[in-house]
Amino acid sequence: MDCFYVITGTMDFLSHISFPKFEKASVWMVGAGPGDPKLLTLYAYHALQHADVIVHDALVDSAILSLAAKTATLEPMGKRGGKASAKQGDITQRLIELAQQGLKVLRLKGGDPFVFGRGAEEALPILDKNINVRIVPGISAGIAGSAYAGVPVSDGQSNQVISFVTGHDTSGDVPAVNWQALAQSSPVIVFYMPMKHIAKIQSELLKAGRVPSEPVCAVSRATTPHQLVCETTLANCVEDLNKANIKAPALLIIGPTVEFRQQLAGCFS
User: Fold this and answer.
1) Domain range holding 43?
2) What is the CATH number of the domain that holds 178?
3) Which Pfam family, just one, is annotated for this protein (predicted)?
4) Could you say which of 52, 79, 196, 240 is catalytic?
5) Is 38 a catalytic residue?
6) Are strands 73-76 and 228-233 parallel, antiparallel or unpaired?
7) In this structure, are 172 and 154 located in the same domain?
8) What are the helix (H) ranges across the chain?
């Protein structure tokens, strides 16, 4: 595979790192991380610098988009719950059309493309058109967003299991989860985008045996300058998150590791 070296002004430290060439008529599906541009991978930066067109999610921070090459065209193609959004099929078709025009197409997704990012759903139809696809992982919001709130998702003494759960399925409804199994098997649960169904999530977990006093932490717009954190309990989370004005995009972390927040909250920024 052809490789070359990147040397761009103050980015000279990249000169010893080789990256694959961004070929024309191909699609790179890249994770932009949770929001903070400092958490962008070097691979993602390389893609931003070499793409002809960038089809990006609504949640990709403007500071990240500003790193794109000056010649790149930006196409917002985000999907936001409760707002007019492009349909999934339309997004995939647009990627195919752009690649068939001979362009270097960057599909820029928040977090990681394969963690509740519908990356495979987009990549497979593109591959069916004999268009080359490259997947570039990103830092998932469930890990980085929890960390920036001062909450580790695992600790050797607290848990050996973590569950990452979407707060809604592809239709926007409550996900089809075995709540009993989830509640009993996973000490720490991280919900992505839970706010639309927060009352249902609370109710199902309590019915499945989780303790009302269990610590809960919600993080809105994690890792950005607008990050908002609310620490509460499972019993009080619906009311407290509403009072704290926690809105999407948000994470909900449930479990014993939330108690580390008091000591670790100032260690991430």
Assistant:
1) 3-136
2) 3.30.950.10
3) TP_methylase
4) 79
5) no
6) unpaired
7) yes
8) 42-50, 62-65, 88-100, 119-128, 141-148, 179-185, 198-207, 237-243, 261-264
Structure tokens at 119: 């990356």
What does the pLDDT look like over 87-101, one tens digit per residue?
Answer: 889 999 999 999 999
Looking at residue 166, its amino acid is T
- Spatial separation of the C-alpha atoms in residues 228 and 209, rounded to whole Å: 29
User: How far apart (Å, rounded) are the C-alpha atoms in residues 105 and 101?
Assistant: 10
DSSP 174: P
Residue 3 pLDDT grade (very low, low, confident, very high; cuts 50, 70, 90): very low
pLDDT band at 12 (very low <50, low <70, confident <90, very high): low
Q: Which of 29, 36, 57, 109 is catalytic?
A: 57
Cβ atoms of residues 241 and 251 within 8 Å: no
52 is catalytic: no
What contacts 36, CB < 8 A, 6 or more positions away? 61, 144, 148, 223, 224
Domain end position, chosen among 87, 105, 136: 136
Q: Give the whole-angstrom CA distance, residue 214 versus residue 209.
A: 11
Regarding whether 128 and 168 lie in a shared domain, the answer is no
The backbone torsions φ and ψ at residue 53, rounded to the nearest 5 degrees and listed phi first, read -140, 140
Q: Is 1 a catalytic residue?
A: no
pTM: 0.89
Is-contact 224 60, C-beta < 8 A? Answer: no
| Set 104, 109, 112, 193: catalytic member | 193
- One domain for residues 81 and 104: yes
Q: Are residues 114 and 152 in the same domain?
A: no
Choosing from 102, 136, 170, the residue where a domain stops is 136
Spatial separation of the C-alpha atoms in residues 235 and 118, rounded to whole Å: 32
